[in-house]
Amino acid sequence: MTSTTPETRSSILGTGIEDALLLKPIRYQWSYDLYNQAVANTWFPHEIQLGEDLGDFERMTDEERHAVTFLMSYFNPNELLVNKALAFGVYPYVGAAEAHLYLAKQMWEEANHCMAFEYVLETFPIDRAEAYAAHVDIPSMAAKEEFEVRYIQRMAEQTLDISTTEGKRDFVRNLVAYNVVLEGIWFYSGFMVALSFRQRNLLRNFGSLIDWIVRDESLHLKFGMNLILTVLEENPDLQTQEFAEEIQQMIFDAVEMEEQYNRDLLPRGILGLNADYINTYVRYLADRRLEELGFGAHWGVSNPAKWMATANDTLELVNFFESINTSYEVDAQAGS
């Protein structure tokens, strides 16, 4: 029986059961740091007094309530879909203990986010059956889900051979689909809409719940980006023009799908927000993701939602560990 020691493993990719059983020495400090930050950021949905927002929800217009319901319809199943992507498409193919630690915490966080959105559905007078059915019944929402399922399907139904170039490409495709597109563009677009209510002094506690979710997602995005870049750096066979163009096209397709989804989210617009505004923000987000992957910006638009910088500025969130979130930390709370 042979085993590869931490000192001799040359790649973050690996499938050996006997590998990654020793945490030290740490090879990927960024992953270990993210794990510790994620633990410090642990929170629970019912710490937020969401019932205090009920009066706001009841006074909102039909279009505003539709937007909140639409977001819950999308977020709830997709948090669980991310967990499947991690369990089938990432965790089994990573051979570093510090990465396994972070991925285990991320999977717990995705479950916690699902419970947070369930808390919203339980608190606000939303038709749960209608909300649950929307991700299948609304074509623009279903198209986004089909896009994600397409990339995870091979991981769920087969075992990748990551010793081959094509197997490694499938691994990276899955990371781009979930970490970059779903978590880094589509989720952030929805977060901006959710937080826009607080800009008008509505749903303030709901906004605090979204803040906590965004801070988790910022770490997910950092981990995913660093994992993608590490795999590309350690595997020169992936660094081809053809593969680069394929990854870019995934993001272009994702933006097109999100733009249609946002037209269904806000068919007539609400005060201070319409689909065109959101879609400009989507293009801004996509440009940032392209730049973080080493490409140039494609749309060249400025951020229309600069108010997001007060808590959730995208560039700061993915500034690769130069700034650390301290808005809520378990250890800090214990000492207060």
Automatic annotation (TrEMBL):
- Pfam assignment, any one: Ribonuc_red_sm
| Cofactor, how bound (note) | Binds 2 iron ions per subunit.
Keyword set, alphabetical order: Deoxyribonucleotide synthesis, Iron, Membrane, Metal-binding, Oxidoreductase, Transmembrane, Transmembrane helix
Query: What catalytic activity is recorded?
Result: a 2'-deoxyribonucleoside 5'-diphosphate + [thioredoxin]-disulfide + H2O = a ribonucleoside 5'-diphosphate + [thioredoxin]-dithiol
Classification via CDD domains: RNRR2
- The record lists Fe cation 1 as bound by E79, E110, H113
Which sequence ranges are marked TM in the entry? Answer: 175-197
The reply on keyword Iron-sulfur is no
- Locate the coiled-coil region(s) and give their ranges: none
Q: What is its EC number?
A: 1.17.4.1
Example GO molecular function = metal ion binding
- Cite the binding residues for Fe cation 2: E110, E183, E217, H220
- What are its cofactors? Fe cation
The record's section on InterPro entries has:
Ferritin-like_SF (IPR009078), RNR-like (IPR012348), RNR_small (IPR033909), RNR_small_fam (IPR000358)
**Which GO terms fall under biological process for this protein?**
deoxyribonucleotide biosynthetic process
What PANTHER family does the database record attribute to this sequence?
RIBONUCLEOSIDE-DIPHOSPHATE REDUCTASE SMALL CHAIN (PTHR23409), RIBONUCLEOSIDE-DIPHOSPHATE REDUCTASE SUBUNIT M2 (PTHR23409:SF18)
Cite the record's note on assembly. Answer: Tetramer of two alpha and two beta subunits.
Give a short account of what the protein does. Answer: Provides the precursors necessary for DNA synthesis. Catalyzes the biosynthesis of deoxyribonucleotides from the corresponding ribonucleotides.
Q: What is this protein called?
A: Ribonucleoside-diphosphate reductase subunit beta
Traced from the root, the source organism's taxonomic lineage reads: Bacteria, Bacillati, Actinomycetota, Actinomycetes, Micrococcales
